[in-house]
Amino acid sequence: MVMAHNVGHFEIPADRTGELKNFYSSLFGWQFEKGQTRDYWMIKNAGISGALMQKENPQQISTQFVTVESIEDYINKAKQLGARVVKNKQEISEGYYAVLEDPQKNTFGVWQEK
C-alpha cells in the first residue's frame, strides 16, 4: 500500500507563545492544550494538527510536517536529493519527527507515527 504523504501537522514559531495564543484564539477561536515539550502548545481545532512553539532561532518560520512510512528512509532520501538536516530524528510518545531544509533553504518536517 502506498502512503499518501499528506501534510499532517504545522508549527508556528513564536517569540512569546502566550501573546500568539491570545492572538490566534481571538482571531480564529483556536483552542490550545499544553504539548509534551517546553512552551509547546497544541492547537485543538485548526482543521489539521497544529501547534505554537517557542522559537529556536530568530529566523525560524512556520513548518509543515509530511507523514512518511520510515523517517530514516526519508531523511536519507532527502539528503541524497540535496536537503540539509536542521533537526535530526526526535522521539515523542506518538512518533518521530525531523526537520529538513530543501536545496533552496525552505524548511519542512517529516513525521512517522509509532
Quick tags:
114 residues, alpha+beta, eight-stranded mixed sheet, 8 strands, 19% helix
Question: What's the helix and strand layout?
Answer:
Elements: E1 7-14, H1 17-28, E2 32-34, E3 40-43, E4 49-54, E5 63-67, H2 71-80, E6 84-92, E7 95-101, E8 107-113
Parallel strand pairs: 1-4, 5-8
Antiparallel strand pairs: 1-5, 2-3, 3-4, 6-7, 7-8
Description:
The chain is of the alpha+beta class and 114 residues long. The chain contains 2 helices and 8 strands. An 8-stranded mixed beta sheet has the order 2-3-4-1-5-8-7-6, with helices on one face. Strand 2 (32-34) and strand 3 (40-43) form a beta hairpin. The chain is globular, with a radius of gyration of 14 Å. It starts with 6 loop residues before the first strand and ends with a strand. The model has no long low-confidence stretch (mean pLDDT 93).
> Which radius of gyration do the C-alpha atoms yield?
14 Å
Backbone shape: globular
Q: Give the CA-CA distance, first to last residue.
A: 17 Å
Largest sheet: 8 strands, mixed
What is the structural class?
alpha+beta
Share of helix, binned: 10-25%
**Number of distinct beta strands:** 8
The main sheet orders its strands as 2-3-4-1-5-8-7-6
Strand content is 35-45%
Q: What average pLDDT do the residues reach? A: 93
Number of helical segments?
2
Order of helices and strands: EHEEEEHEEE
- The residue ranges in which pLDDT falls below 50 over 5 or more consecutive positions are none
